[in-house]
Amino acid sequence: MTKRWVIIILVLLVVVSQGCRRSLSVGPIIWKYETGPVLSSIISYNRKLFIGSENGYIYCLDENTGNLVFRYKTQGAVWSLSEIYDGKLYVGAGNYIYCIDVEEGNLVFQYETQGDVYSAPQIYNRAVYAGSTDSYLYCLDKNTGTLIWKYQSNGSSLPQGRGIYTSPAVHNGKVYIGADNRYVYCLDCETGKLLWRYETSGEIRSPLEIDSGRLYVGSLDGSLYCLNGNTGELVWKYNAEGNIQSTPVIYNDSLYVGADDCCIYCLNKNTGKLIWKYKIGGQIQHSLIINNGKLYTGSTDCYLYCLNGNTGELIWKYKTDNWIAYSLKIHNQRIYIGSSGNYFYCLLINDR
């Protein structure tokens, strides 16, 4: 090999390596804010971020600077937040369902249940829907908090009242919910009348996902179920190698879900056939999102992972100060991270 070709090859290697370094990086930290452990999802609205903490506070932060806009103290750990509707944020905290005005941070209403509200409230037409560990799914007037109806989950050989931990899915006049008694329920949104139910083989802690008339449900029996949303009939079932607690995420014809076996699974959403799986260093519980063909997830091993959504190849990973179970948000080439530590982070993504 001539000296000239050696030089050309070395130059190409340098260029490729520099490109790889750019594609494999995340950071720096733009800002961080001390919150306590962040248990809820992250909501972005009007250049503000809303998060909930185990310390009982709902925080509203400026998304660019991380400065506190306001905070609201609830009567328990803040487990869940809804998307914002008509300037109102709906919250599950302790054993209450809250409605907060997002401009001033004032209480609109609160409704007391008899169990913890892990379930993220969902809005549909005039109502807000949320489940509680007291085993009831509640339907409240979204403006006043007045009870419209409630439905108690029961059935199977397990004791009644095992509770509801999952977030409901609402679509086309139907509300779907999973419960710890192993059942998936489909109810009429207006009346709360039971339309159908389907029994899995394990408790249901995974938030439900509805897409093109099909309902996707993860279970602690290690299976992901695809059900017909109208009839409750099983379309397909995929058996993972660990409990499924993460939210199924759909992108084009692919479905992504994480499991307690430390694997991320990519399935064909129509057939349930495995496309790829990737093993990381810890369990995946709730935080899994797709953005521009890239899949992001947090884990109990304290790492944030970015994978190629088509192939499952690792693009980069980033070490945080504590495990990430619930909270990730990507917006304007920034990633917002809530962990089980005491800080909420905003980082720059350098993976273009």
Describe what this molecule looks like in 3D.
- This protein has 352 residues and is mostly beta strands.
- It has a domain at 273-352: Beta Barrel (Lipocalin).
- It is 6% helix and 49% strand.
- It contains 1 helix and 32 strands.
- It has one helix at 3-23; strands at residues 25-34, 43-45, 48-52, 57-62, 68-73, 78-81, 88-93, 96-101, 107-112, 122-124, 127-131, 136-141, 147-152, 169-171, 174-178, 183-188, 194-199, 209-211, 214-218, 223-228, 234-239, 249-251, 254-258, 263-268, 274-279, 288-291, 294-298, 303-308, 314-319, 327-331, 334-338, 343-350.
- The strands form 8 sheets. A 4-stranded antiparallel sheet has the order 1-32-31-30.
- A hairpin with a 5-residue loop joins β12 (136-141) and β13 (147-152).
- The longest helix is centred in the N-terminal third of the chain and has 21 residues, at 3-23.
- Residues 3-24 have low confidence and may be disordered.
